[in-house]
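Supplementary Methods, section 5.1.

A reviewer requested that the exact input to the structure prediction be made available. We therefore reproduce it here, unchanged from the version used in the analyses.
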Amino acid sequence: MSKVVKLLAVAAVGFAAGILLAPKSGAATRRDIKNKLFETKGYADEKAQQVKDAAYEAADTLRESAMNLRDEAMGMMDSTRTSAERVAREADALKEEVKARGTRATAEAKSTAARVKKDAEKRLR
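The structure derived from this sequence is encoded token-by-token as follows.
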């Protein structure tokens, strides 16, 4: 049971005991009951407003946290995209370098093979 409900229950029991045991006229008792009801309503309204304010504050905090998380995620996504683009550019550059080296190696291998063949043919004559 929440503190507010317990407090209201204790107040109601105390109020009822006070009314039943007090030697007052019916009009005075009705007036006291009416006054206590207005006090209790005012107290309940005040507590309800406090709960409402706390709920709005919590909602604002959650909304702000969600926006912060969204901004962080967007930043991480941009960073990841930038890194991926950089890696792709580097891979393209390396691919071109490997292709050029492969072409040179092939040319050197053909040249060497031609020299070896020529030397072999010379020696076989």
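The longest helix spans residues 26-124. These observations are discussed further in the main text.
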